[in-house]
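HUMAN: I'm a chemist; might I ask for a sequence paired with its structure tokens?

ASSISTANT:
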Amino acid sequence: MQKLSKKKLYYGLAAGVVLAAIAVGITVTKHSKSAAIMEEAALVRTEVVGRAAAAQDYTYSGEVKGRFESQLAFQVGGKIIKRHVQLGSVVNAGDVLMEIDAKDVKQTVNSNAAQVYSAESQVKLAENNLNRYQKLFEGGAISAAQLDQYKSAYDVAAASLRQASAQYAQGSNQLDYSVLYADKAGVISSITAEAGQVVTAGQSVVSIVQDGEREVEISVPENRIDEFRNMGQLNVTFWALPGISVDAAVREIAPMADAVSRTYKVRVSLVNPPAEVKLGMTSTVTAANRGKQQDAAYIPLTAIYQTSDVPGVWVLNNEIVTLRHIKIGAVGNGKVQVLEGLQNDDVIVTAGVHKLKEGQKVRIAGDTL
């Protein structure tokens, strides 16, 4: 009886283990099925690859500027006593912009004027003496050596008059320089000095953008500057003027890159811009490389799936994704150039690439692009 009880206990334990294993297997199977269902439910966006011999467009942000911009300064130093313009003021050639205190210059001019009067008197005296001694020489009363002395005295007096007159003219010019005039018609774009400030000769105080052509200044990276030299017609749009588009052309490219940004300043001339285009407006210049066209596909950057150092994309075939390695080229404007690895009409995943696994079944969210 005791042996029979031990056998029953053993068989009971064995049956319990078997039932537990069955239960665990059922649970694992359910979890596997759930995981498979979740994998099958992955939503992605796709795009059909198209290779064409077309150049990629690039956009650059810029600012509207004038073709000619002058930095004006006083030609003499002094204290500014009046400012006649404001930022944005429209001025004509000859308008007074600023004045500096000219009291010291006036005193110099007065001193030079007195020297001129004195020199004129000396010339008149020397001339009278020369005429008098000329007659005495003709009458034989004096020698030729004495006459030559009076001729030299007259020449010295005349030279002193010319020197005094030149100093007076210079002082008069300095007095004129105490008033800053607009040399061209335009718009005041900046003011860097105020009334009461002491400035030196040549120190820029006012900037004027001259009337006429309007341009956009952009910064082009050094790896694009050679291609940019071959750009054809450009297109310019403005953030504040939706719906307005202006044709443009490259006018000037800086010979050296900026030391900090390592970009080249490029001036783009606007062709017949409308009156709504104002100085300082934010603009976008769209450029297409018309020079070097090559047969290559351009796909969104979001389609790239990086594994180690090798880029790849998920290619969709019969709702199953496969990772395919590619060779990329130029990157810009949200696109990447694919040189090798893709064919025409390949369907690639462009959104949700980091949630996929090799051989996973997916569903397409929306229409294929």
